[in-house]
Amino acid sequence: MSAPVVITMTVNGEPVTGTIEPRRNLVDFLREDLQLTGSHVGCEHGVCGACTIRVDGDIVRGCLMLAVQADGANVETIEGISDSGEIADLQKAFHERNALQCGFCSPGMLMAASALLSENPVASRDDIREHISGNYCRCTGYQAIVDAIEATGQARKGGAS
Amino acid sequence: MKPASFDFVRAATLDDVFAAFQQHGDDAQILAGGQSLMPILNMRLATPEVLVDINGIDELNGISVNDGFLRIGALTRHCDLLASPEIAAHAPLLTLAAPHIAHPAIRNRGTFGGSLCHADPAAELPACVIAAGARINVAGPGGRRSVEAAGFFHGIFDTDLAADEILTSVDLPLLTTDERVGFQELARRHGDYAVAGLAMKATVSAGKVSGATLVYFSVADQPLVAPAAAGALDGHAVSDPLSDTVMAALDNDLTHVIDDLHTSAAGKRHLAGVLLGRVLAEMAGEAGS
Amino acid sequence: MTETSPLTVLDRPNSFIGQSEPRAGAKRLLQGRGTYVDDVVLPRMVHVAFCRSPFAHAEIKSINTEAAKALAGVVRVVTGPELAAYCSPWVGVLNHLQGIKSAPQHALAIDRVRWQGEAVAAVVALSRAEAEDAVALIDVDYEALPVIADMETALDETTPIIHPDLGDNLCFQREVDLGEVDKAFADAHLVVEETFHFGRHTGVCLEARGIVADYNPAEEALTVYLSAQAPHMMKNIYAKHFDLDENKVRVVCKDVGGSYGIKVHTYPDEMSAAALSIMLKRPVKFTADRLESFVTDIHARDHRVTARMAVTEDGKITAIDMDDLTGIGPFSVYPRTSGIEANQVVNLTGGPYTIDNYRARARVVFTNKNAMCQYRAVGHPVACAVGEGLVDTAARALGMDPVDIRRKNLIPDDAYPYTYVTGLPFEKLSHHQCLDQILEMMDYEALRADQAACREKGIHRGIGFASMIEVTNPSPAFYGAGGAFISAQDGCTMRMDHTGGITCTVGVTEQGQGSDAVVQQVAATAVGVPMAMVKVVSGDTDVVPYGGGTWASRAAGIGGEATLRAGVALRENILDVAGAILQAEPDTLDIRDGHVVDAADGTERLPLSEVGRIVYFRGDTLPDGVQPELVATRHYVPKKFPFTFTNGIEGFYVEVDADTGFVKLLNCWVVDDCGTVINPMLVDEQIRGGVVQGIGGAMYEECLYDERGQYMNATMADYLVPMSVEMPDIQVGHVETPTTDSELGAKGVGEAGTAGAPAAIMNAINDALTPFETTVTAMPFTPDRILRALGKI
Questions:
Q1: Are C626 and C775 in a shared domain?
Q2: Which chain C residues have a beta carbon less than 8 Å from that of B274?
Q3: What is the pLDDT of residue C4?
Q4: C-beta separation of C386 from C316 below 8 A
Q5: Mean pLDDT of B81-102
Q6: Confidence of residue C10 (pLDDT cuts 50, 70, 90)
Q7: Which of C700, C704, C792 lies closest to B261 in CB terms?
Q8: How far apart are CA C353 and CA C125, in angstroms?
Q9: Which of B4, B263, B269 minimises the CB distance to C133?
Q10: What value does the mean pLDDT take over residues C655-663?
């Protein structure tokens, strides 16, 4: 058995300490140790995007990062960016356009969308499709998601949708 | 799919890495971006006893131009490759390739050095560094050495690195004013490993190609250099269609193409020819400007 | 709705029927505040991981679990014989599928494994990681057996029989011979023939299958949290196979991360997890990881169909003759059977058309691959592709426009009621109206002009159509009649509390399609309250009326109708009391916008909260003889037809790169007639999602097995699902032909998009390839297959 490691990090603005096995990945740490179940596990090989979270401002796959690697980092999950209001307009657009059905991909999708819109609010539909191409959605077929992200981007830039 | 247990060591310097290898031998594995290693561990395809995290080793960072070379540190993330003005200016093949590497969340963590060491035959970067004529810098407990990129990749997931060595940086010659690069990849879905891809560098002078390096990826068990086709392109007008001579030479180069799960070797050989035409057309577009 | 019928609920003031209301239940999902099975944590809960066979067919000589048992954190390790004491085996047969046979299947394999991935031992531990550590220490001695991996030879005399007791590898065979098929072919001006291959593929729900089973020994009661579609069905199955009193079994389906039919079947690993909870007397959690999902989630659509069509000189179809072979796993899946998909292919091929002569044989054979069973649009994608593919082949041979040949053969819109040659009763469909509409939406002539202009420049674009019919709202004829304890009826209990708030509990379930939202809209309309006053509870068998869950696109049509009736009944009950309070005749009153009003002019008389206050807190003030029941339950089962058929048409515009074999999906249009549309936005999104799932099967998805029965691409990197860049925008149009079998008139729509997409794409690709005089008929349409058709490799 491996030696447990003590880690500290900031999660959604709160300081957090944990004692964990090194093999524990970051999304499992968030879900199981911190009960932040909004980030989801879909494949554990980095392909589906359901575990997408933010570490030190960048979106990453929570299943491909060890919790010990996030020691000292600033981690943000869907719960945090929802409660802060950062993505309220995106969530509203998703809701109004039914850009989700089962909702399992949505936290990861919103993380990816938020990252895109902060660098490029005037992203075209093609840009949007390219940026979310690492987030698997089985229910919607993506069109409503693209619509919602596009509309939010336009609204942020002050344009009408 | 949870990995088998391992201990975790954070290396601050290269010496820390060598010490870990000395102590644990084959039971230790380097962890950089983790984007290739973590799936392997999660699937228990590898069960190292110790992971040595190198993300804190400063020496492995940085992109700089020195002595006519562009040096890219092993820990350079794919997103940094994409955004770097130095790379765009001096090694634009990497700038062309980077958007094809997976997706933003992966690119934020995955590293340049990691991709090269992982040596997935379907990956873009190994082919690019060979086409660019790069040298790969390696450090071990006994000292440092550098290897021509063309000699670094031995087979699927197999490189010239010894068990106790680490890739520190890659030196790429600066692209000269009459050199052009081209990159084309055919993938079923954006960001996937390619069905077939081609990275190319050549001198284009008065519209004519010479000194080309053609490196195909995702067609064999390692990047596949096509020297006969490259030679046959000497003197070829970049905007002309490909001659039978070039295609026959390419055919010769492609004898070791293999099937993958979805595409036959025959399919890949055919696509290789198509890719060559498209890369040249891309270069022709640039040559005019 | 006709002008002469009395006002129906659809005419109510402030009706939400037909409104694109956003779903109340979606908000929590957007904040990551849903509850999926893996989010459920119970005290003393433990985790199970399975030791799975790496071989497709082998004898189990021995299993050594000593090292596994000794590992720290391990609670129990069990093998098949031990678990069999807690869980009886099941057999996936129904007696309305004549002659279907299958062998008993256990929760954990006993003596023999019959597909790669079948579980042979289970480890229960304090964490999933520790359970997996112990699994790695289990030593199983397998003796390999010959693998039956090729369905084409499964019935050969020399092929070993997977279940010797069954006598052969045939699960089910169905043959029909209707009209005068041989004569029609003899007299035909043109006979076209094709062999179609459909790649085996699977659902890939983003939330993998999961279960938390919680047995309480003090009450001999089992509670199961399950990611699934049919909680009542599973309640019965748990009771039956664990020998429990069914009244003491509770199944709870909370948020489900996608299902599409994958999660409406009985899985041995889930049954094992539940049995282990009973054995260990504590909660047991199992969530399939992605690799497990690929090798155990049911697969579907592995068919080879050889078919001929007889056509007259002017393009009238006179006959179809086809042979369908499908290779399922080693067991027919329980309880719905793996014979249904082939049965549908036989029933539905050519269904949009007036065809009088029809012969079909379908054979379902066992193989040593993963199980196959119902997955979204069950059988329809195959049937539609065969029929529509032959129609286009005939059109090309006759030099007819594919629109014209369809015009000639689609059942006329005024020909109803109409029974298709295979016995399918169509109440009323709208094929021609849908065709008119799609041609307008796509601007057909402009597309043909674009195609011609592109061809001149060596760009190969193609247009493809697929006319389709779709089974929805099944009656008991579908499963119940075969002996399955699967309910075709459904119910809604609607209750008004003292605030006037309405709580609906329903037997249909939610996996994201919007069943809860549809119920909410119907309830609000039927009672007369704002949407925000209605809460919907579904998925908990302790709480909801006995129902069937959601499958075969039944939630809106059947669940919606039950809700409608319950709402009407509740409104009457409320108005009875309101009448007593107001001393007015109840039939002079109505409820609108949460208020009791005068029906004649809408004058507000009382808020519902006032009715509630009096009923619940001041019953003393009500006159004698007034017994308020502010709750009503109504159930509904479709009776007029065994299924409510819908119809639609899909069109694709594609570009084939003849150099690379890559296909770009430029545009897509769908016109669907699902009867009354309750929420247009949800219907559009179901269609879009369904189309993209169909694109998956047509272009990308295939479970690749080698001759040893090894599933070679069982990861998300190697099994290709549709992602955003390659998908087109999809234009959706509607025609509404309500069913008269219910007041709501809603038919189903969840599966239609998937049914037609593969056919339309195939036809579009082949239209693009016309100059090359070649066609492709094997899905998925990979670059290799197209390059081969073009003769480039």
A1: no
A2: 659-660
A3: 42
A4: no
A5: 97
A6: confident
A7: C704
A8: 58
A9: B4
A10: 98
